[in-house]
Amino acid sequence: MKPLETIEVLQTTFFSQRMPAPIRLRELIRTIRTARTQAEEREMIQKECAAIRSSFREEDNTYRCRNVAKLLYMHMLGYPAHFGQLECLKLIASQKFTDKRIGYLGAMLLLDERQDVHLLMTNCIKNDLNHSTQYVQGLALCTLGCMGSSEMCRDLAGEVEKLLKTSNSYLRKKAALCAVHVIRKVPELMEMFLPATKNLLNEKNHGVLHTSVVLLTEMCERSPDMLAHFRKLVPQLVRILKNLIMSGYSPEHDVSGISDPFLQVRILRLLRILGRNDDDSSEAMNDILAQVATNTETSKNVGNAILYETVLTIMDIKSESGLRVLAINILGRFLLNNDKNIRYVALTSLLKTVQTDHNAVQRHRSTIVDCLKDLDVSIKRRAMELSFALVNGNNVRGMMKELLYFLDSCEPEFKADCASGIFLAAEKYAPSKRWHIDTIMRVLTTAGSYVRDDAVPNLIQLITNSVEMHAYTVQRLYKAILGDYSQQPLVQVASWCIGEYGDLLVSGQCEEEEPIQVTEDEVLDILESILISNMSASVTRGYALTAIMKLSTRFTCTVNRIKKVVSIYGSSIDVELQQRAVEYNALFKKYDHMRPALLERMPVMEKVTTNGPAEIVQTNGETETSVLETKPPPSGLQPANQANDLLDLLGESDITPVIPTAPTIKPASAGGELLDLLGDLNLTGSPVSAPAPQIAQPPFLLDGLTSQPLFNDIAAGIPSITAYNKNGLKIDFTFERSNTNPSVTVITIQASNSTELDMTDFVFQAAVPKTFQLQLLSPSSSVIPAFNSGTITQVIKVLNPQKSCTWSLVLKASMPRSPFGFAGKEHWYRKLDGKEEENGLSPGQFVAAVMGTVYVVPLVMLVFCPLEQLGFVVCLW
Amino acid sequence: MSVLLPIWFFSERDLFETQRLRLMLFFFPLLSIQQMQFMLLFSRQGKLRLQKWYVPLSDKEKKKITRELVQTVLARKPKMCSFLEWRDLKIVYKRYASLYFCCAIEDQDNELITLEIIHRYVELLDKYFGSVCELDIIFNFEKAYFILDEFLLGGEVQETSKKNVLKAIEQADLLQESQNEDWGGLSEDIL
Question: Out of B10, B80, B168, whose CB is closest to A636?
Answer without folding.
Answer: B10
